Amino acid sequence: MFQDPPHSRTDIVLGEIDDLQPTVNFASQAEVPAAEQWGPRIIPDYQLFFLLSGEAEISIGQEQYKLAAGDIALYGPHCPHRIITRTGVIFIGIHFAYRHLSPEPVHPAFSIEACSEERLEASIRPSYKLELPNKELLELPPFFTIPGIKPILMRIVQEYLNEQPGYRIVLRSLMTELITTLVRNQLSKRPRSPDQDKIDPALQAINKEPEKNWTVNELAALCGYHVNYFSSLFRKCTGDSPKQYLINERIRKAKYYLLSGEKMELIAERLGYASVHYFSRNFKEETGLTPTEFKQ
């Protein structure tokens, strides 16, 4: 049972999703008996607590939630919390930072602080938000369930424990995938915007024929709107101009073709570029890498 206090929250913006540089500080899988307790405490970073089996109860500030197998709790350094196992449980715990220049793990153990029951009960969980490409702020849930997320969590634990060459970068990649999966899961639950329906014909045309040099007038005509209104609506829904969206779609497909082993000449022709040189230049402008560097 989830209890949401009727008090105002503090919004904490974690940054733009495309600029995240997550660092995994600690990851483990453990089995503990009933009546095990962590806290009340405050951690120095963020933590995902994923219950593989059993039942537990978690308090984050004034909010309480009963966790069952498959449930995940997400909390950060700004609010006291406490976890109590109601049965024997198996869980995965991952401490991480959303943005840190270095991928080197910083173990949180020495910076965890105990706090009083009074402080736990008086505190209010902040609202953690990520900025999407269209500048919208998406709130991350404190408790959630995502089918199929377990393999990503298991891989994070394995990479952290094995410490094979390059494991820090692999952990950053896996954590980015995990956060992106959470964001997409949240977006999939929202009702579809009526504005999105209005530009669907243009989106479908670009996705179907990215090699075509679509003009804004052509795309606006497909949707039945004046070009100025269409352009404003398109940017509102996607965060990009129609021209930039077309470029993004070409680059996305180019990445797929490159990793599939196709030759650059064929990719450039397939995506409507006048030459391999122009394709390579555009690819580097958008990704920071040449096609060859990306493939390697």
TrEMBL record:
This is HTH araC/xylS-type domain-containing protein. It comes from Paenibacillus glycanilyticus. Keywords: DNA-binding, Transcription, Transcription regulation. Transmembrane segments: none annotated. InterPro entries: Cupin_2 (IPR013096), Homeodomain-like_sf (IPR009057), HTH-like (IPR037923), HTH_AraC (IPR018060), RmlC-like_jellyroll (IPR014710). Signal peptide: none annotated. It holds the Pfam family HTH_18. Residues 200-296 form the HTH araC/xylS-type domain. The keyword Transcription regulation applies.
